[in-house]
Amino acid sequence: MTARRGAPVVAAWGMGVDSTAMIIEWVARRQRLDVVLTADPGAERPETYHFLPLFQHWMDDHGIEHHVVRYQPRRFKNWPPYFTILENCLTNATLPSASFNRKSCSVKWKIFPQNRWVEHWPTALAAWARGDKVVKLIGYDASPADSRRYAHREGIEDPRYDFRYPLREWGWDRDACTARIQAEGLPIPVKSSCVICAAMRPEEVATLPRWALRLIVLLEARAAPRLRTVEGLWHRSTRARPGSMTAFIRERALLGAGEIDAIIAGAPVDLVDFQRMAAALPLAQRPMMRDWIERFNAGVDRLSA
Predict the structure, then answer these.
(1) Of 110, 231, 294, 303, which sits most exposed with the smallest number of CB within 10 A?
(2) 90: number of CA atoms within 13 Å, CB side?
């Protein structure tokens, strides 16, 4: 099965194993590929950001147009301006939607900015004007886990897009994707996920750098007063782990107890004071949420030194 002649083709690259292998093989099969879009929520694992320029260089070598797109908040009310999923959650004293068994964070921070870019892309506008659709390549593989994800999307109709799942068409699972990337001479990317993602397994949390663990403690402490139905980022406790990532970090001694307690006791109060100060200023003069996070990181670095 090949892309319809004349229809523009967009690949969604999530910076992980599946979508990377999909793009490599699609290009090797000389299929049409007009542009690759990567949605960056601003809180991916550091290994993912390290892999990003490596594959961008590969795409440059193969003449593939590519862009990193981001969700752009436009209304801040009285809040300091924020631009990442972490900053958004800290601003609103909440957790990512996946912690509440919802998937809206993917829609807001990944699907929406990609669609927004396409909506301003002349090639797509020309296709829609002539009654054609844009073909969107999505990297779900043929493994049982991705089959469940695919089942939720199967049959979705969109007047602007035809969705293609090349890895499933080829019968490729995760091992086949890994082998294809290795054959291309590229390093294997880690699983793409935010450092505050509820879908992380305990062993993945345990490999996070200290600065990311501190932000997890901060995020759960900031949201704690408003939580009623969940324990923390992991929602509820299971036999494998607690519902709170902070509790897991404490149990595994990934951070010192004193450092954890200091963050919980002081950081949310300081953040509220920062927001109150920002609310008194005109938008153009307000400091950004990232300014406070940088100050927080500098403070806990001194604490743990």
Answers:
(1) 294
(2) 30
Give pTM, 2 decimals: 0.90
Domain ranges across the chain: 9-183, 202-304
**Looking at the predicted structure, is the pLDDT value of residue 217 above 70?**
yes
Do 66 and 35 form a contact (C-beta atoms < 8 A)?
yes
pLDDT at 301 over 80: no
| CA 8 to mean position of chain CA atoms | 25
Fold of 9-183: Rossmann fold (3.40.50)
Q: Which uninterrupted H or E stretch holds 36?
A: strand 35-39
Closest alpha carbon to 42 in 99, 78, 91, 100: 91
Query: What number is the average pLDDT over the span 10-30?
Result: 97
The Cα-based distances of 62 to 26, 30, 280 in angstroms read: 12, 11, 51
Q: Which of 14, 194, 226, 192 is nearest to 86 (CA)?
A: 194
